């Protein structure tokens, strides 16, 4: 279980690096006739701007990907293009799942992980998607354990300050979540992610009490990302961790968030707090009020207790968007199952 959790954390970081690799050339207007995985064509006509959403299809949790996509698609009229990233053996499964469901009309592209590209930069063998190159200036990245209750256009319209390459949710941003953080003993400062016993961390000059942020929802400006060479910076801190073990993995989860906390310290914009209500997966016993969750735009079951497993909380909100696997391979885990 611990190994699987570690691999999932690594896959999260690699997906974030996939977003890094979506290098901006110019805003691309796709013709409305463009279908799934077709070759991109330039259109001489002014078309509706696409909203690119990058999301993972991880082995063992593809139902999460489908539910996330279902919730986004059902709550917007925007022109969304999904980039679904997964290992070679997951891509055919997720494709059939989508094409044999009510999601068959969505626009999507699949991107396959290429193993061993990051050898020497992570502590576990893992995979990284080939560098996809859609021509978008702005990109949304989402973890798979989310559902969207608002219009994704609203999140896409998040304003980034000049010089900022990304917007995240600060872990201290919403008073309504503070009680949840305290009750389950979560870390919401840099101390929970970086090992301040190490000189390299102390040399950063970042106070350990600085509020952390969560990279499970990202709005990225790829022009700034490319100009600031942020992929190289992230990879550098991944490699340094291999050499020096800089992250407090036992406290904060380590590899997924820590490099981003370093690279984006003081250099990121913030997402509307209601667009990232998180911690739903930290405890099977602690719940938010139903009224609060109804007002939320995006729900995130970060933590151990996922809504497709048992035990977990607020599963009804997630199941509203779940589409059963036509192959029968992915099943919900429930007390009576």
From TrEMBL:
One of its GO terms (molecular function) is UDP-glycosyltransferase activity. Belongs to the glycosyltransferase 8 family. Keywords: Glycoprotein, Glycosyltransferase, Membrane, Signal, Signal-anchor, Transferase, Transmembrane, Transmembrane helix. This is Glycosyltransferase 8 domain-containing protein 2. Its main location: membrane. The keyword Protease does not apply. It holds the Pfam family Glyco_transf_8. Residues 1-21 form the signal peptide. GO terms for cellular component: membrane. Gene3D superfamilies: Spore Coat Polysaccharide Biosynthesis Protein SpsA, Chain A.
């Amino acid at each position: 279980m611990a190994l699987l959790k570690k691999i999932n954390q690594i896959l999260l970081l690699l997906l974030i690096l996939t977003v890094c690799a979506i290098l901006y050339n110019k805003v691309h207007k796709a013709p409305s006739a463009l279908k799934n995985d077709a070759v991109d064509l330039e259109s001489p006509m002014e078309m509706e701007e696409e909203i690119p959403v990058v999301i993972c299809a991880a082995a063992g949790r593809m139902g999460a990907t489908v539910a996330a996509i279902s919730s986004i698609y059902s709550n917007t009229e925007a022109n969304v293009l999904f980039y679904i990233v997964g290992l070679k053996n997951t891509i055919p499964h997720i494709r059939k799942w989508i094409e044999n469901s009510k999601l068959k009309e969505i626009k999507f592209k699949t991107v396959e992980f290429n193993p061993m590209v990051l050898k020497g930069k992570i502590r576990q063998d893992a995979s990284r998607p080939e560098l996809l190159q859609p021509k978008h200036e702005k990109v949304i990245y989402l973890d798979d354990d989310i559902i969207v209750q608002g219009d994704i256009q609203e999140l896409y319209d998040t304003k980034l300050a000049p010089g900022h390459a990304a917007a995240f949710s600060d872990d201290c941003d919403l008073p309504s979540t503070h009680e949840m953080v305290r009750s389950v003993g979560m870390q919401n400062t840099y101390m929970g992610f970086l090992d301040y016993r190490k000189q390299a961390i102390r040399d950063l000059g970042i106070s350990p009490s600085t509020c952390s942020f969560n990279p499970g929802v990202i709005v990225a400006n790829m022009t700034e990302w490319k100009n600031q060479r942020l992929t190289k910076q992230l990879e550098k801190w991944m490699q340094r961790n291999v050499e020096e073990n800089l992250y407090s993995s036992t406290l904060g989860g380590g590899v997924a968030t820590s490099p981003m906390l370093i690279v984006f310290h003081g250099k990121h914009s913030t997402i509307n707090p209601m667009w990232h209500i998180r911690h739903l997966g930290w405890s099977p016993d602690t719940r938010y009020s139903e009224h609060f969750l109804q007002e939320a735009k995006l729900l995130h079951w970060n933590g151990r207790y996922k809504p497709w497993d048992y035990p977990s909380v607020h599963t009804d909100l997630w199941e509203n968007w779940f589409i059963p696997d036509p192959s029968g391979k992915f099943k919900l885990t429930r007390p009576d199952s």
